[in-house]
Design goal:
By secondary structure, the protein is an alpha+beta fold. The chain is built from 20 helices and 26 strands. The chain starts with a helix and ends in an 11-residue tail after the last helix.
């Protein structure tokens, strides 16, 4: 939003574009129809799943299918031969073998070390080498267009390491503006756009800056005009650019934080570079042959003759698949000057071993790029979609790569088996095209919704009779190769390791999916939903040894809440001692010594240097902790309950508590109350207060909890106690007034009758209330609770 744009809008007002409004309504309705209709089907048929969405499900499918490609990928070995040569002028360069025995080498022709050594020996035996051909050509490289939403997310991920969500948050802040010279100034234009064009005003400003800063050589003869290559681009907004190109990154550096400055600089450079002159490169390919013509090698190189826009900006690239070299043929280091038929001196010959690589996992940048190429979703939705996939625990981001969780693979397998049409790439992209037709007035939006809902509701209805066993059979067949991969040992991966007869398969429980034995309940073997090599120990119970003190067996077991160690068998009169295994310990690493140390918890670490009270470490319901008096402190991932010392415990106790408290926090004891007991100072939900014998009194607003004393607390407690007594007397008087008719009776018989009648009324009312509650509960149980919130995309 620039000043000129606002003034121009006032001078040329127009009616609201009804077609754009209808396209918005159709898009929103489709998201609601898919999200709020498909998600409940997942909850019923696939416990543990969270949600499904029109675009979200397709993005998840892309991640899962890429992971499947990686799992089935078989690496192949190949070798390359590089040779060092020296020109007559004494300059060295490197060339790669391309022809052997007069035949062109394909990639896997040298697939073993023996073949590579034989080729190297042939080069060593050759009598001499000379330059056979020199191919030189000039290449013009044009600048990139200004940023759209998706290209900004991609470049911010590659160059700055920012997630798509974080990029949009920073861009939003730059768009909203900062304080400059006493007024709020927006630094960039609207950041949710698929348009690549910029205004004539911005082009003129860019050309003026280029001519002044870089010189006339860097200014093209005519302004550059860009158009989006995407067939469904709406281009309702300009590209993302600085609102004022004269406002350089150095001019606003003092007003921005580090990430804001880096993103603004990226946008500024890209916008200016988009109007600069093209770069001119000379690409050279030199073919080298031996005297007999049986060997041929090639060296590639490039020289920048004129850097043009490259002096300011160069776009990064995503991974090249299969570990291949640069996709731009002919790029390489600079080659020395050579002439045809020049003799070359051979130097070192180096065979190198390589292995083909699987396709790389998606990064945020490459996944956004893929969605855009397929025409799925809109640029403004990509950041939220990627975030939802992570929030639902469908994928995780590891080393900036998306890895599907098993829950995500289950959801994808379910949707592709029972709703395949609605997670197909072409179908989702075609739906986007229909929405664009609505915005262009070429189709009625209600007709789009009507056609979609007719088929989609029929697909939903088709799952009503679907049983859990049918779902499990389909998922077990689809995901079997992933969860039960065939190893080289010939061992059946589905054979139960406990009973040796049952077949392992996918099961569904209250808390989601897991792997279990078909011989249940005779065999109760289970394991988490993971590949066996990644899963926890498969044995449900492991004998670790005998406690030397008691002579009882020590066992490692697994319960519904995880692994624990147990002392004794639990068959006697007393309940055996059990201690949960902390998350910092892997069950496979627990031996008898570690188990005995766990069973010895809680342990005393020492006395607090200030209070003299004992500090104790133990494992409770919520995990490992340390305790000092009535204060508990949970241990983090970096602290081990078995090894933590007194000094570390004192430091932890001194640190302020983080997160939401489960209850009131005792700040300190003020002293003894004259009537007995102790007066304590607490911090509660609504602020500090004092308490004695169940009486609670809030501190005055101007009181300082750090200096508040017992003398100040006693009057507060007494006043609060008196208030309670007065309320009690008022309640008693009210009860007496209500009972006046009965009290007015002149004899005891009448009083008795009145009491009896009152009791009967109470009993009847209680029964009536209970019956009403029962009916209400039954009604509630039959009606699913409505869910609120935005529709999943």
């Amino acid at each position: 939003m620039t000043k000129n744009a606002v003034l121009d809008a006032f001078t040329r007002p127009r009616e609201i574009d009804r077609e754009l409004v209808e396209a918005y309504l159709a898009r929103r309705a489709l998201d609601y129809l898919v999200g709020f209709t498909l998600s409940p089907v997942l909850w019923r048929k696939l416990p543990g799943s969270r949600s499904a969405g029109r675009v979200q499900s397709v993005a998840l499918r892309l991640v899962c299918e890429r992971e499947s490609e990686i799992e089935v990928f078989k690496s192949r070995e190949y070798w390359t031969i590089e040779v060092e040569f020296k020109t007559e002028a004494g300059q060295t360069f490197t060339a790669r073998l391309t022809h052997l025995d007069g035949k062109r080498l394909e990639r896997f022709d040298l697939d073993s070390e023996a073949k590579a050594r034989a080729a190297a020996d042939a080069i060593l035996r050759a009598s001499g080498f000379m330059v056979a051909e020199i191919d030189s050509r000039q290449v013009r490289r044009n600048p990139f267009p200004p940023f759209t939403t998706s290209t900004l997310q991609q470049e911010a991920s590659r160059k700055l390491g920012l997630s798509a969500n974080r990029t949009m948050q920073i861009a939003q802040r730059l768009y909203e503006g900062i304080e400059l010279a006493g007024e709020t100034v927006g630094l960039i234009t609207y950041m949710r756009t698929d348009g690549v064009a910029i205004s004539a005003e911005a082009i003129a400003a860019a050309r003026q800056l280029i001519g002044g800063e870089f010189g006339p050589r860097y200014l093209p003869d005519a302004p550059r005009v860009y158009r989006s290559p995407a067939k469904n681009a709406q281009e309702a907004h300009e590209a993302i650019r600085p609102t004022d190109l004269a406002r350089k990154p150095t001019d606003v550096a003092a007003h921005l934080d580090r990430d804001q400055l880096r993103l603004y600089e990226l946008i500024w450079k890209r916008t200016v570079a988009s109007q600069m002159a093209s770069a001119l490169l000379e690409q050279v390919a030199v073919d080298i042959a031996d005297a007999a013509g049986r060997l041929r090698l090639r060296a590639n190189g490039s020289v920048i003759l004129f850097d043009g826009f490259l002096t300011l900006y160069q776009e990064d690239r995503d991974d090249t698949p299969d570990g291949m070299e640069s996709a731009r043929e002919g790029e390489g280091g600079r080659l020395p000057a050579m002439r045809k038929a020049e003799r070359l001196a051979r130097g070192e010959v180096t065979p190198s071993q390589h292995f083909t690589q699987p396709p790389p996992r998606y990064t945020e940048a490459s996944l956004v790029k893929k969605l855009e190429e397929l025409g799925i979703g809109r640029p403004s939705t990509y950041a939220s979609i990627l975030q939802v996939l992570q929030d639902r625990d469908y994928v995780r981001l590891e080393k900036r790569r998306f890895i599907p969780e098993d829950r995500g693979r289950l959801v994808t397998a379910f949707l592709t088996n029972f709703f395949e049409r609605y997670v197909e790439y072409n179908f989702t992209a075609d739906l986007e095209n229909q929405l664009d037709d609505v915005s262009g007035g070429r189709i009625d939006w209600k007709e789009v919704l009507r056609n979609f809902w007719r088929d989609f509701s029929a697909a939903i209805d088709g799952t009503k009779e679907l049983t859990i066993s049918q779902v499990l059979t389909a998922l077990d067949e689809a995901l079997g190769p992933h969860f039960f991969p065939n190893g080289d040992s010939g061992h059946d991966p589905r054979l139960c390791p406990v009973c040796g007869a049952g077949r392992l398969s996918l099961k569904l429980g209250k808390f989601g999916a897991f792997i279990g034995c078909s011989n249940y309940p005779n065999c109760r073997f289970t394991r988490p939903l993971a590949v066996e090599s990644e899963a926890e120990p498969t044995t449900p119970e492991t004998a670790l040894g005998t406690d030397p003190g008691t002579g009882l067996a020590v066992t490692l077991k697994k319960g519904p809440y995880g692994h624990y160690v147990q002392l004794g068998d639990g068959n006697g009169e007393f309940k055996p001692k059990r201690v949960a295994v902390p998350r910092s310990l892997k069950p496979a690493e627990i031996d008898l010594e570690t188990a005995l140390r766990l069973l010895a918890l809680p342990r005393e670490l020492g006395r607090h240097p200030e209070t003299g009270e004992a500090i104790v470490a133990g494992i409770g319901r919520f995990g490992a902790y340390i305790k000092h008096g009535s204060i508990f402190k949970s241990l983090g991932a970096d602290d081990d309950v078995l090894t933590i010392g007194l000094n570390r415990a004192v430091v932890l106790l001194a640190e302020p508590s983080s997160g939401q408290r489960r209850g009131p926090q005792l700040l300190r004891e003020l002293g003894a109350h004259p009537e007995g007991g102790t007066v304590g100072l607490y911090r509660g939900r609504y602020g500090p207060y004092v308490s004695h014998d169940g009486v609670i009194a809030s501190l005055p607003r101007n009181a300082d909890p750090d200096t508040f004393s017992l003398a100040e607390a006693l009057p507060l407690v007494a006043a609060q106690r008196d208030k309670g007594k007065k309320r009690g007397r008022k309640t008693a008087k009210s009860a007496t007034a209500k009972g006046a008719p009965a009290k007015a009776a002149k004899n005891g018989a009448t009083i008795a009758v009145a009491k009896k009648t009152k009791t009967a009324k109470k009993t009847g009312a209680a029964k009536k209330t209970a019956a009403t509650k029962t009916r209400a509960n039954l009604s509630t149980a039959k009606t699913p609770r409505a869910r609120s919130g935005p529709a999943p995309r």
